[in-house]
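Notebook entry, structure prediction.
Reason for the run: the old model in the group folder had no record of what sequence produced it. Starting over properly, with the input documented here first.
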Amino acid sequence: ISVVDEVPARRLPIKNCVVNTAYRPKAYAFVADEVKKGHQAYVICPLVEASEEAQGENVIDYSKTLMEELPSGIQVGVLHGKMKSSKKNEIMQEIITFIMEIIGTIAFAASGAMVGVGRRMDIFGVCVLGVVTSVGGGMIRDIVLGIIPPGMFQKPVYTIVATATSCVVFWVLYLKKELLEGHFREIYDRFMLIMDTIGLGIFTVVGVNTGIRHGYMDNTFLLVFVGTITGVGGGLLRDMMAGVPPYIFVKHIYACASIVGAVVCVYMYRSFGTVAAMVGASAVVFLIRYLAAH
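New structure, fully documented this time:
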């Protein structure tokens, strides 16, 4: 038995409140707003399924209620103790994949916005580049795989997160213009490299995983292609729209790192499963980009 007798470092304070069922519409609105910001919400029920012996909300029925009450773009997942291990693992993999996608979205949006600021675009142009960099590769991938409409339209949370990130980058660099000049320029370029590397690694493995989930496990060439296009497609569109030489053709090893990462992801998936493959292949892309930069 583990005993926690102190609050972990930097833990935010927990706020508890008790309300009646009439407050639920406001609670649903609050959850919807938080999810749109890129956060997650967890609803805990005392029962797994309806019972004549005990009263209270149950997971099975209440999940259906949430699907009806929350906006259609919000995904509702179910996890409980009576599930088979394979189903639990599948849900946990979806959660991990979603977290990685949000991290990649923020990283690529930041790099796209930084290019826009460097080209002296207004806030609309900066946001467009940020969004295109984040979801452009995934949109191309979905079209190739026949996913219509593409995921960016089915789950607008990624576009919203990219837009918010782009706005933050714009205002930071607009208020601190000296960050684009002098010795700060080196820091800017290094930050750009880091953001691009994080986005490249994550979106490469997300692309491969998407291809696998849509039934193309045995088509290695297609999986490597969709992984690579997911990783580099957004950056390519960004550079074309910004009128600069595409980053993948002139800066270090970029597309090749994505290709190697996609290949590693495919073969690791077949031996170790989704999570290990995505984490391991992302690390390979990070390592290649790091070594290339040095």
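Summary: DSSP finds eleven helices and no strands in the chain.
The old model has been moved to the deprecated folder.
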